[in-house]
Amino acid sequence: MKTQAEKAPIIPLKTRHLAQLPAHVLRPNYDRSALTPGIVHIGLGNFHRGHQAWYLHRLMQAGHAMDWAIIGAGVRQYDAVMRDKLLAQDCLTTLIELDPSGSAAEVVGSMIDYLPIEQGNAALIAQMARPEIRIVGMTVTEGGYFIDPATKGFDAAHADIIHDATYPETPRTAFGAIVAALRLRRQAGTGPFTCLCCDNLLGNGDILRQTIVSLARMTDPALADWIDAECSFPNSVVDCIVPATGATELALAHSFGIDDHAPVTCENFRQWVIEDAFCAGRPDWDLAGATFTDDVHRYEAMKIRLLNGGHQLLAVPGEVLSVATIAGCMEHPLIGPFFAKVARQEIAPHVQPVPDMTPEAYVALIHARFCNPKIIDTTRRVAFDGSSRHPGFIVPSIRDGLRAGTPIEGLLLVEAIWARMCAGTREDGSQITPNDPFWSDLTMQAMKAKDDPQIWINMRQIYGDLGQNDQVSATFARLLRSVWDDGTAKALADYLAG
């Protein structure tokens, strides 16, 4: 009897091997050697390769956008690992859509190069200064935009920002590199480019504008004025659940007959809603399913409040109760119902409908998406960087509830469980390894809050002035004491029964 390897040989992912892939694997039908760059994208994680790169690839499959190929970039040394993997396979990515009814694989070919990762970012600056680059995109996580946690304005005191203002020709950050490239373009008369944020931030284009213009103003006010007037920063909504890649995902690529060292798995749902504000042209992403609109903010609020906020409702208690995945949390007899009740009763009432979608229908949609058992999305990944995600995803709904006089108990309960999580242990006694850029400080505050809950809710960088609200303060204190004294499961059960 033949072995599995003999039945289905594993083909190394290379452009020259595309014709050898199994017939059921979709692959580029366009000539990749004829592609020319139009986009530099900074932050080549799984999300970008399963979302923005896929939309462009689908345009290319239809014979469009051949002059808009992506050049990848990163500014941190750990990006070099991904660069090596992708260059070794001609910047191709196997994208595997996971659906309960079956899975499908497609090789995405819209990326054609990955710039060197180097101190000073010379190669990145030079590439962005080239006239054919008309869009610079970014996925650098919600916490990467140098936002002052107290004022929500630009954090000019951050060490990396001080460095980039002091040494503007050899910056550390992506934003410093963008400013340096735009300085060269202005001097050469090349013109501006569009800066396109693809991170989960409310008003993400406005935030990106704030960061870049503010940094430029620290060294060159005239350049800052030019960037502000000439460059565009469209707001956008990006949505697709894309888990991290590990041994399971590598093996899954093998099951399709592909030796891919950086495959991406994702759900079979995507959404990309974009303001049509591009100063130097754009691909016709709408032909691949994206939505251009002048009313991005309603889409933003629906997605960030319900999906991203809903993710925290699941991942935080899931982490404390040792439930490994989001799908597992949905199956849990307490966590899944907790998500459903809070989403429907405490978040949805403050979310406006968008064309063809009410908040109630959206809750039903994400409920089905979160339940997908084939998406191995870990609670740890979703709970990561809570110090950025809770202020953006949960706290605004608390404020809306206070203004409207509607329930906020479930929202405050997830904050109490997050405080319990940040103490660094699960209820089974296992350790939670650091999972936030400010983990050590959060852990210290969480341990103090065990005896004095007010300490946690007084963290202004997370909650602003909410700690001064008597209703918030009293309710949070009661819930945190319940979580510590009686356990998370009992606190969830009490909320559901109440």
Task: Give your account of this protein's structure.
The protein is an alpha/beta fold. Helix 11 packs across helix 18. The termini are far apart. The N terminus is likely disordered.
List keywords for this structure.
23 helices; three-stranded mixed β-sheet; alpha/beta; disordered N terminus; 13 strands
Structural class: alpha/beta
Number of helices: 23
Please report the total strand number as a whole number: 13
Strand content: 5-15%
Radius of gyration: 23 Å
Distance N to C terminus: 61 Å
pLDDT < 50 runs, ≥5 residues: 1-6
The gross shape turns out to be globular
Secondary structure topology:
Elements: H1 4-7, E1 11-12, E2 37-42, H2 46-50, H3 52-61, E3 69-73, H4 79-88, E4 93-99, E5 102-108, E6 111-114, H5 122-129, E7 135-138, H6 159-166, H7 174-188, E8 194-197, H8 204-217, H9 221-230, E9 236-239, H10 247-255, E10 258-259, E11 264-266, E12 271-274, E13 291-292, H11 296-320, H12 326-331, H13 335-347, H14 359-370, H15 379-383, H16 386-393, H17 395-404, H18 409-421, H19 439-449, H20 454-457, H21 460-463, H22 470-486, H23 488-497
Parallel strand pairs: 1-10, 2-3, 2-7, 3-6, 4-11, 7-8, 12-13
Antiparallel strand pairs: 4-5, 9-12
